[in-house]
């Protein structure tokens, strides 16, 4: 979404946050002393060095103590500032951080003057026809029930959905997700230069073998993998979700598991084998 708003001239991907984020927030998060010198591109490429609140043990302890607490987006960054340590200087490393997505979401709200879920709906959901998709905890549900997702014994539907927000707080259905992927790569979400930004691969940005997210190359919220000889462009979710575009086959692959310990990649590999065999 930040790339779309940037293409409309309402924020600058390569300008420092000191020139774009309100000073009150920069002061509030002054413990993150490199944040004013960080750019939105670095937030989206995970090269900001911001500590990841979502992977912090103190944050998980707070969730166990107050699972239904409603979190404001600024409070998620507050936690990172209070409990985390920057991992490296901006642009000097690569490490996935939900905190960066939250800061980028706050910047989008400031740039547009609208709540993030309203921006999603105006610029993407309504034009694309994603009628079963919503930002959980921030707007009314569009379905009576959602799938349960588990990390060991933890059922994530028992935890306030506001813990994720711009880092992945959307609820959707497979047809809606497929519509989004198709719309993205047909330049209905961002134009061709926006797609170039999304797929401008970050030097040194990859995950080690065996990592659940598994990106061999990473751009701005989008990664690239080759599975069974098929190049996949897209994103993987916190539990087991995936949304990929196989450009050489003009095919969309979306799906999910509902348990974090289940490996999504055998399913993805099976789908890729089906693609290849269908071309023979």
What does this structure look like?
- The chain is an alpha+beta fold and 280 residues long.
- The chain has one domain: DD-peptidase/beta-lactamase superfamily (Beta-lactamase), CATH 3.40.710.
- It is built from ten helices and nine strands.
- It has helices at 2-7, 23-28, 40-45, 57-65, 73-83, 98-112, 116-128, 174-185, 192-198, 265-279, and strands spanning 134-135, 150-151, 154-155, 170-171, 217-218, 223-227, 230-236, 242-246, 251-255.
- The chain has a five-stranded antiparallel β-sheet, with helices on both faces. Strands 1-4 form a two-stranded antiparallel ribbon. Strands 2-3 form a two-stranded antiparallel sheet.
- A hairpin with a 2-residue loop joins strand 6 (223-227) and strand 7.
- The protein is globular and about 60 Å long.
- The mean pLDDT is 94.
List its salient traits.
two-stranded antiparallel ribbon, 9 strands, five-stranded antiparallel beta sheet, Beta-lactamase, alpha+beta, 36% helix, 10 helices, 280 residues
How do the helices and strands line up, and which of them pair or pack?
Elements: H1 2-7, H2 23-28, H3 40-45, H4 57-65, H5 73-83, H6 98-112, H7 116-128, E1 134-135, E2 150-151, E3 154-155, E4 170-171, H8 174-185, H9 192-198, E5 217-218, E6 223-227, E7 230-236, E8 242-246, E9 251-255, H10 265-279
Antiparallel strand pairs: 1-4, 2-3, 5-6, 6-7, 7-8, 8-9
Helix pairs in contact: 5-6
């Amino acid at each position: 979404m930040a790339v779309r708003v940037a293409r409309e001239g309402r924020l600058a991907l390569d300008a420092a946050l000191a020139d774009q984020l309100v000073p009150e927030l920069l002061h509030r998060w002054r413990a993150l002393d490199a944040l004013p010198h960080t750019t939105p591109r670095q937030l989206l490429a995970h090269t900001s060095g911001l500590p990841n609140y979502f992977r912090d043990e103190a944050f998980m302890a707070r969730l166990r103590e107050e699972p239904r607490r409603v979190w404001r987006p600024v409070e998620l960054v507050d936690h990172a500032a209070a409990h985390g340590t920057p991992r490296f200087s901006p642009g000097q490393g690569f490490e996935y951080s939900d905190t960066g997505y939250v800061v980028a979401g706050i910047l989008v709200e400031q740039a547009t003057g609208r709540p993030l879920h309203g921006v999603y709906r105006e610029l993407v959901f309504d034009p694309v026809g994603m009628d079963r998709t919503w930002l959980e905890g921030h707007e009314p549900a569009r379905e009576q029930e959602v799938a349960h997702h588990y990390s060991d014994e933890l059922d994530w539907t028992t935890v306030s959905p506001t813990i994720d927000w711009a880092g992945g707080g959307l609820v959707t259905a497979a047809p809606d997700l497929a519509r989004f992927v198709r719309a993205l790569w047909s330049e209905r979400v961002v134009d061709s230069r926006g797609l170039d930004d999304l797929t401008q691969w970050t030097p040194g940005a990859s995950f080690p073998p065996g990592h659940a997210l598994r990106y061999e190359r990473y751009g701005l919220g989008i990664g690239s993998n080759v599975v069974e000889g098929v190049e996949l462009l897209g994103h993987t979710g916190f539990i087991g979700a995936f949304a990929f575009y196989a450009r050489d086959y003009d095919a969309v692959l979306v799906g999910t598991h509902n348990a974090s310990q289940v490996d999504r990649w055998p399913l993805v590999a099976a789908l890729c084998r089906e693609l290849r065999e269908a071309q023979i």
